[in-house]
Amino acid sequence: MSAVMKDAVSVCRVLLVRYLWVDALCIIQHAHFTICAMSSPSCHQGFLGRRQVTLDVAFRSTLYPPVQGTYTLILTGLHKKVEYPFDPHSIELRNSPWNKRGWVFQEQALSTRKLFFGGRIVPL
């Protein structure tokens, strides 16, 4: 079983969903939700793995422009904040491997509920 399918089974178990249908017909057959594995480049890499724990933020001084550099933010703990609604135009979503696949248009247009799993975010 591929890594993406194993992760999908894990998600379904947590959500108490007894049956998992892996096929393009899920949307047509009125699936409860569609799992969108945004960060997985292929079925061989799961979407529930380790998340990126650092973020580089570039800066430039407005008072003295030659002063510039990068701050590295490091995750030191988890928070409970959920940002809602999920911005469908987010940079992570636009640049994700998921968004470059052919069937994504169908998923975006026809799925009634979508669960997105990204490298940095898990929007609800």
UniProtKB/TrEMBL annotation:
Residue ranges crossing the lipid bilayer per the database entry: none
Signal peptide bounds: 1-24
Domain called Heterokaryon incompatibility: residue spans: 3-107
Annotated source species: Parathielavia hyrcaniae
Keywords (A to Z) from UniProt: Signal
InterPro entries in the cross-refs: HET
Name this protein carries in UniProt: Heterokaryon incompatibility domain-containing protein
